[in-house]
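Supplementary Methods. Inverse-folding protocol.

Structures were first reduced to a discrete structure-token string of length 520. This string, shown here, constituted the complete conditioning input.
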């Protein structure tokens, strides 16, 4: 490939996420709200603190609270970077770096494809698949980890073939972990890479090979990882007396997704898990496996139609150590997101974390298509021009499906559908005597903070007594219930807003009902 090919990919790769972003005036969902709000905090000079709580897993003492104790900080740092460069405290500024990174994904994917195939045309096909990324396309310009994982995943496989890449692979593993905690998997894969790639000399004993090759390479990778993550681990040690934050480990004992918001977090324990019974645990994991395979893997990551070509391409590339690392890593991720964290995995974490492998799948798909065409040609069923024809059809199919999915997800449903209402709710709250700094309890606290700059905490999973306990502990004055996402235990408050004496009903805006809480 020459500079013209890369220029085409960059320009088209910049246009597509820019067009998608033009329909997205707010982050639109809680993950992106959180990362963008974290960027605002950094831009405002408030550091890694947050005036909102979106879960209670680390038993927070109050507001402000140390930030990124569940989700990791890299996306917020990148969002703040856009604001620092532009000098603007806006959502456009907060996502500009993500749009630019989106344009880099096809460049890196094409470079990886050419490195593997040495065929510029196949590399261009892979690059276009990265631009028209189907289910990932609506999320590419959003302050989240999709584009970060794709960029870092492609870089990982590109750098891994260089001589002695261990320090750089450790650095990339650190950046992946700084983006998402499951990025730690890549440090494990780097260790596996070292064992698979290091060559043992004929006169080396097993012991001398380990000490002369494996351990030095491993120490280099660990050094690279700690260059990125060392400071964050020290921060966690200072705050929590542990290199990792305490909340995430509790998710192992969940019995349903809504327990992510449980209060107090101590209700999630090995005892509660065992009391629920192994039959429920098995059922939950079977459901997670089905969701991860069919919804995330086949539909979202594979794009349905491209799955057979990806599989054939990976089989063709089976002798490349990168293929074995990619497939092994994906299978480990699938197992973790199915059996260890089934609810997080099936609710999007597998789709999120799998984005790092996506550039490799986009490389494999055109190769798989070529294998099929080549076999058909060998039997005299297709002409030489069939390669270009079917490659063009593959790209055209990706374009059509991406346009359709973006239209359905972003344009037709008016992204964001929910959080855009929070500014109107805040106006009603102020009109009813709400003072600055008074805390609200709401479904999406970072989203509400973005709209109002008012401190907010999440609606706890539980009944009215739990809600009142949270309101009293954190001195929350107002409750906002929306016409969706209300726990069954709180339905009566929403359905009959004037019948509970502990909640003074103040009014409604587009299905969002506002209450003054009596915490006496």
């Amino acid at each position: 490939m020459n500079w013209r090919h890369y220029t085409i990919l960059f320009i088209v790769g910049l246009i597509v996420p820019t067009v998608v972003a033009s329909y997205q005036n707010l982050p639109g969902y809680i993950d992106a709200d959180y990362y963008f709000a974290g960027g605002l905090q950094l831009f405002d000079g408030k550091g890694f603190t947050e005036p909102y709580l979106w879960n209670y897993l680390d038993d927070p003492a109050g507001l402000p609270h140390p930030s990124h104790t569940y989700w990791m900080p890299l996306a917020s740092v990148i969002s703040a970077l856009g604001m620092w460069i532009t000098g603007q405290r806006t959502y456009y500024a907060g996502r500009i770096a993500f749009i630019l990174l989106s344009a880099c994904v096809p460049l890196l994917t094409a470079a990886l494809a050419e490195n593997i195939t040495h065929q510029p045309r196949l590399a261009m096909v892979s690059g276009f698949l990265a631009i028209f990324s189907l289910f990932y396309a609506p999320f590419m310009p959003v302050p989240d980890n999709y584009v970060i994982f794709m960029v870092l995943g492609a870089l990982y496989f590109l750098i891994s073939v260089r001589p002695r890449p261990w320090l750089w692979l450790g650095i990339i593993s650190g950046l992946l972990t700084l983006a998402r905690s499951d990025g730690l998997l890549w440090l494990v894969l780097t260790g596996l890479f070292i064992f698979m790639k290091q060559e043992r000399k004929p006169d080396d004993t097993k012991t001398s090979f380990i000490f002369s090759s494996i351990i030095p390479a491993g120490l280099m990778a660990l050094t690279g990882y700690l260059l990125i993550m060392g400071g964050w681990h020290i921060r966690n040690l200072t705050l929590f007396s542990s290199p990792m934050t305490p909340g995430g480990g509790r998710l192992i004992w969940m019995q349903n997704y809504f327990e992510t918001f449980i209060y107090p977090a101590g209700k999630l324990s090995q005892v509660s898990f065992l009391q629920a019974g192994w039959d429920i645990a098995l059922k939950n994991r079977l459901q997670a496996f089905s969701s991860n395979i069919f919804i995330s893997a086949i539909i979202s990551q594979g794009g349905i139609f491209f799955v057979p070509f990806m599989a054939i391409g990976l089989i063709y590339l089976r002798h490349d150590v990168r293929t074995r690392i990619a497939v092994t890593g994906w299978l480990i991720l699938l197992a973790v997101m199915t059996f260890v964290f089934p609810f997080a995995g099936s609710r999007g974490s597998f789709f999120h974390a799998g984005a790092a492998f996506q550039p490799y799948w986009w490389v494999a798909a055109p190769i798989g298509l070529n294998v099929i065409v080549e076999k058909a040609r060998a039997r005299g069923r297709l002409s030489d021009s069939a390669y270009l024809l079917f490659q063009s059809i593959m790209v055209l199919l990706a374009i059509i499906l991406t346009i359709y999915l973006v239209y359905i997800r972003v344009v037709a449903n008016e992204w964001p559908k929910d959080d855009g209402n929070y500014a109107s709710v805040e106006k009603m709250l102020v009109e009813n005597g709400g003072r600055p700094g008074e805390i609200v309890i709401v479904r999406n606290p970072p989203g509400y903070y973005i709209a109002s700059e008012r401190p907010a905490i999440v609606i706890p999973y539980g009944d009215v007594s739990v809600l009142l306990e949270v309101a009293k502990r954190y001195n929350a004055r107002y409750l906002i219930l929306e016409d969706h996402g209300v726990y069954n235990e709180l339905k009566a408050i929403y359905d009959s807003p004037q019948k509970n004496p502990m909640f003074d009903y103040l009014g409604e805006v587009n299905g969002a009902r506002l209450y003054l809480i009596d915490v006496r």
